[in-house]
Write a structure and sequence with these properties.
The complex is a heterodimer of chains A (115) and B (116). By secondary structure, chain A is mainly β. In chain A, the strands form two sheets. In chain A, strands 2, 4, 5, 6, 9, 10 and 11 form a seven-stranded mixed beta sheet that branches. In chain B, 0% of the residues lie in helices and 52% in strands. Chain B is built from no helices and twelve strands.
Chain lengths: 115, 116
Amino acid sequence: EAGVAQSPRYKIIEKRQSVAFWCNPISGHATLYWYQQILGQGPKLLIQFQNNGVVDDSQLPKDRFSAERLKGVDSTLKIQPAKLEDSAVYLCASSLVGTGTYEQYFGPGTRLTVT
Amino acid sequence: AQTVTQSQPEMSVQEAETVTLSCTYDTSESDYYLFWYKQPPSRQMILVIRQEAYKQQNATENRFSVNFQKAAKSFSLKISDSQLGDAAMYFCAYRSTNNAGNMLTFGGGTRLMVKP
């Protein structure tokens, strides 16, 4: 079974530029999560999708961050414009909901550096 | 809101020895899940072990076991016979059974170093 795929693995941009990250969850997983992990901290949930609907985006800075999950499969997280404090690893995770197993499977993450 | 605290930023253990990583959490809920995740330098979070709050028996997975103290809101991870491959960041995480999804609340992590 293929795992959660993310791209790119690394991205360096200047502040005020825009950037987009892509995530492909495990096939059949209805729930998709985006986490932000600042260096030295644990991951923090940014947004959660159930199929193509948003379940929780309470911690997403909506003035600069946006995310979508078209057709309930792949997802894109965008930052526009980026700030220095957005430097972090962005982790995507997916889980199979409704079958009694709720383990979240994580992708390798995208390390973003904003200069 | 729930919070998870890991008070040990770094721990060190000799290969083949045993080490315990600490985690405390704060919640008003009676039913929930607790997890330990391992994050090696590759950054991929790997589930190590999980515990359902309604189960009194502590979870075990090979060399990994937990000491779950519900009243004290404590959830420590014991790694026996430590191996060089155990070196990584370890995160304790909490998941409510009441919210609409499965969001995880993570602690700040403990870096485990294994000395040969």
